[in-house]
Amino acid sequence: MLEIQQLRTDLDAVTRQLAKRGYAFPIEAFNALEAERKTIQTQTQELQAQRNAASKKIGNAKSKGEDVSAIMAEVAHLGDALKQAETQLEQIQNSLQKILLEVPNLPHDSVPEGKNEEHNQQIRRWGEPRQFDFAIKDHVSIGEGLGLLDFETAAKLSGTRFSLMKGGLARLHRALAQFMLDTHTQEHGYMEAYVPYLVNRESLRGTGQLPKFEEDLFAVNAGGAENSTSNNSPAFHLIPTAEVPITNMVRDEIVPLQSLPLKYVAHTPCFRSEAGSYGRDTRGLIRQHQFDKVELVHIVHPDQSYEALEQLVGHAEKILQKLALPYRVMALCTGDMGFSAAKTYDIEVWLPAQNTYREISSCSNCEAFQARRMQARFRNENGKPALLHTLNGSGLAVGRTLVAVLENYQNADGSVSIPEVLRPYMNGLDQLGKTGGE
RNA sequence: GGAGGUGUGGCCGAGCGGUUUAAGGCAGCAGUCUUGAAAACUGCCGUAGGGGUGACUCUACCGUGAGUUCGAAUCUCACCGCCUCCGCCA
Q1: How far is CA A239 from CA A78, A280, A337, A390, in A?
Q2: Catalytic machinery residues of A
Q3: Which residue, A130, A131, A284, A404, has most beta carbons within 10 Å?
Q4: What is the nearest nucleotide to A79, using C1' and CA?
């Protein structure tokens, strides 16, 4: 959410910034509502002041035992006018709020301008893609060839965009998550968190998924309940990312200055409806309704958020380096960034079967955008509450990392070597072979 | 799920229809005193928003939302959180 004062005083600059990301701010509607708000708010407050003054007089007079019927008559007419003004003001405020909640964040000055992912900017590249001297397979063929990856049964259980892993592959998936958690907690200073996978609407509004992106989420009601709340909305949503529960830990909180920065890591499943992505990435593990992710969140002092962003990306990169998986870091352009982000780096891992780099992590500085929605604050150097900055990034998407390991570590005989750093998590196993590796 | 209790500023805590402008305390900030510190004393000290160039001024906020009233932290109803006990349960 943007600051309404900024829109009042600097609307031109704000709309120009938003246009860079392809967002057309409803200027006329906003200005009309603002003008109305000003009038009605002043009027409402005048009526309230009159009522308060009269009521105080009545109180005074009564305590002295005087007759109050004259003053009572004076305020008799106020009631209806006041109620009407208050209702009208509330409606206007709601309309303004609705507009505000759907406006994306302003891009940082350093973000390259562009329409779509073609205009993203490569920042750096790490590692060299391996040269294969045999015909390579994609991760689906590899996994199915090993008898450890089964989309047919997953479809029977749940439907399309679900997966079933077994044996050594399921264990490798678990090993990846453990390895990521251990690295971030032991080497990068994160506090591990275990969080709810079902969250309420306030949390989703806080991080920006609601109200605008409801169709991307899965909603959940208690068994037998059509709708668990009176206003026809579901009781919970499944988290689309651990960013939601972790970041919302500081919602409505005032964090003491000395406890900053907060750095959390959590491994959770993520659930996305993938509405609007029909036909995209239908094969394999790349785009699933349910996938695991290790998420990194920083809650920081506003002066430190861009420094924190660089660190955050570095922590995610470190995982790929330890796994010896080639990748590149991209600065997303204005048109390709997510709703809440002021600046985003994507990390893309090399997938030999697709002969390209694919997103495996997205690291964003949301500045005060989420903090303002959440009222997440700290007590600053002057003792005054001020908005925090929030950052989040994948460190990494576990399923996609598994894809990258399978494809980059495949052997000519259909087996898959296990990266050195994962072997301690695999009971020393060094490859997933024909036997299924267990 | 059942019964009972409870929700007031950063924290503790009084207030239960009208000088409440939310007492008092703790913590914090500034000052006096002191070689310095502590103690003592004095003053300041919630959040958000509106109007005004400004000194200033007005409004809202006592878990949330409705209601009663000229007037609600205080009364009524609903919901939510927390605590205690019971039931069920991995």
Answers
A1: 48, 22, 20, 18
A2: 272, 287, 359, 362, 400
A3: A404
A4: B70
